[in-house]
Amino acid sequence: MAATKIYLLLALALLQCLSSMASDRKTYIVHMKHHLRPSIYSTHHDWYQASLESLSEEQPSSSSSSAASLLYSYSSAYSGFAAFLTDAEAASLSRSDSVVGLYEDTVYTLHTTRTPEFLGLDVAGEGLTAGDKLDSSDVIIGVLDTGITPESKSFDDSGMPPVPTRWKGECESGPEFDPKSCNKKLIGARSFSKGYRMAAGGGNFMKQSDDVASPRDIDGHGTHTASTAAGGHVANASLLGYASGTARGMAPRARVAAYKVCWKTGCFGSDILAGMDRAIQDGVDVLSLSLGGGSAPYFRDTIAIGAFTAMEKGIFVSCSAGNSGPQRSSLANTAPWIMTVGAGTLDRDFPAYAVLGNGQKFTGVSLYSGSGMGIKPVGLVYGDRMNGSSNLCLPGSLEPGLVKGKVVVCDRGINARVEKGAVVKAAGGVGMILANTAASGEELVADSHLLPTVAVGMKVGNQIRAYVKKTASPTALLSFGGTVLNVRPSPVVAAFSSRGPNLVTPQILKPDVIGPGVNILAAWSEAVGPTGLDTDTRKTKFNIMSGTSMSCPHISGLAALLKAGHPDWSPSAIKSALMTTAYNHDNMQSALRDAADGSLSTPWAHGAGHVDPQKAMFPGLVYDISADDYVAFLCSLDYSSEHIQTIVKRPNATCSRKFSDPGQLNYPSFSVLFGDSRIVRYTRQLTNVGAARTLYQVHVDAPPSVGVKVRPAQLLFRNVGEKKKYTVTFAAKKGAAAPAAGHAFGSILWSSKSNQVRSPVSFMWNAVM
């Protein structure tokens, strides 16, 4: 017995030791000098594996279970691999002449119907024509997200032609996912979880966390984004009766390939890179990523690195701008070879009403679909009459004795909007008024709450708070107005949509455009309720969500349509067409406004404007950019040769050609920085994709403190495909004071009898960020 006890204690100690060793490991992405592979290795994978095995030989005390492990070998999106290493192993590996650098894995986050009609697309068909009826069935959209729900009617393949023969992808088998569930619409489904598994504690964590190690979507986000981009027509779609109608994606005949790279705790860079790597090899035409992190140099940005290879292969990459607005300089995914997409509203709303005991009636929004709270007003309470944090309705903050049977006013912020309602319901409340604070301003986002809820803006919220504080026995009654169309004004820039200026490269104006991203109806996973809360047992095949996560796949789908109409266009030509034809006015013909405070929006919020797919199909002129142009751009950032090779993945990538200023890139917009010099001069080149023998005249809009000269002022294109250059000189006027805010905006417009090609311009003095 004593010997057995000693053995068990030793075994326990060993397990604890191994666990400790494993916990000291981290996932690293290792950049290798791809061209230096020794001839004794037949593949780069073999070389990478041998490099890791040599680390174990240097540390013979390491057991096989705790040895460095190879997670991914990248072949297209990156020159290198991902591995699970200790700091000592990482340091040892970094000393190898074959290694350019090692980077710790990064966690990215998700940036979480009527849309086709709002964009001017034909609900019954593809909606855009280029001569004969447009068919996007040869275009493949790769969606990197939380997976897919293959049973959704949005991915039905009725009437679809055979899968393009060039397609090399597949549908993987896994828990709760039968590869036979794929079809001629959903033609690929894969999952990538090794980075997530390692960060989460290894092998059994997937089962413990209720995540599913397969392409199956148990979150809903991936199904929603994929169907937004390319979902087929589904009649009688709605969220529990809201937004009822025919749902369809932007390119309903395009193919979908799902790459599950996002999990319970986020999206890990090593998994994202593996997904992009595979998608490029599989043969996608468009990559859609509704996720991102903060700002980082491009050589440290996993998405930017993978997207560069995709761009070189002719793949259009669309990414969400982020949901950190209206904070300034809050953008994600700012690389110029990526389409950075912000969010705007639709002309559809879901009104709800709060009537106070003093007779005041306020309008808000809601997607509540239950039986309601009756016709009698009930008591109304607000947090400052309870405890310190109850105004936010955080879990555990409400006192049931004060809340039971009443409507609770909850301040927006800190925790999820729908969770606040769950907290109120758990404490016995019968309704909630979700009131914005200064951080959210007047922006209203509808949610499918678990109890009667009305969301209101900051101004109305302040009036309701004041009423509760000043009234001895305040009361309220909530009611709901269903779905309302033709809302004015719309679009409006969403307050949550991340803003410029671009911190990584201030000379590149971002975001590029905005698209519909507020209250978007799309397909959903029945594995989760519409709120995503564990306590939400409701099932729905469609859900309404908001975020730049929703606007991104709109642009991905539109890019697929443009790719179908113009298969010879490069990714930069498609981006240019979407940007230069975007509009800057709402449906009342007034300038676009910002939902944060109702003020006029600027290109730091809406980029070139709101996309107009009908005009984008026939833009007249495009600003085209080659991979070599992007290399010259990177060289202008004074990156080291190793950093440039990390992005470009060419052993011979040199700076034999270098822009004098990053702003010299042939981008469809301008960002002018007045620093040491008051004069900034850029040259751009336009390519004629419209009719031959077309004359364009330039029109300039600039602030009073800036002089702008464009030479030449006219461009005559005699042939289709002809290229013409122009030079624009921006000069901060002598003696003219810079704007008090340190920035201003304008535009450069080339117009012909049939086309207008517009580029927004931002100006900053002393590079104020």
UniProtKB/TrEMBL annotation:
GO biological process: proteolysis; system development
Chief location of this protein within or outside the cell: secreted
Keywords on record: Glycoprotein, Hydrolase, Protease, Secreted, Serine protease, Signal
Ranges of residues in domain Peptidase S8/S53: 137-586
One GO CC term on file: extracellular region
Signal peptide start and end residues: 1-22
Keyword Magnesium: no
Gene3D superfamilies, sorted: 2.60.40.2310, 3.50.30.30, Peptidase S8 propeptide/proteinase inhibitor I9, Peptidase S8/S53 domain
Domain Inhibitor I9: start-end pairs: 27-111
One Gene Ontology molecular-function label: serine-type endopeptidase activity
UniProt cross-references to CDD domains, sorted A to Z: PA_subtilisin_like (cd02120), Peptidases_S8_3 (cd04852)
Domain Subtilisin-like protease fibronectin type-III as annotated: residue spans: 664-762
Active site (UniProt): 145, 221, 549
Location within or outside the cell: Secreted
Positions of the PA domain: 389-464
Family affiliation: Belongs to the peptidase S8 family.
Name of this protein: 2-alkenal reductase (NAD(P)(+))
Species of provenance: Opuntia streptacantha
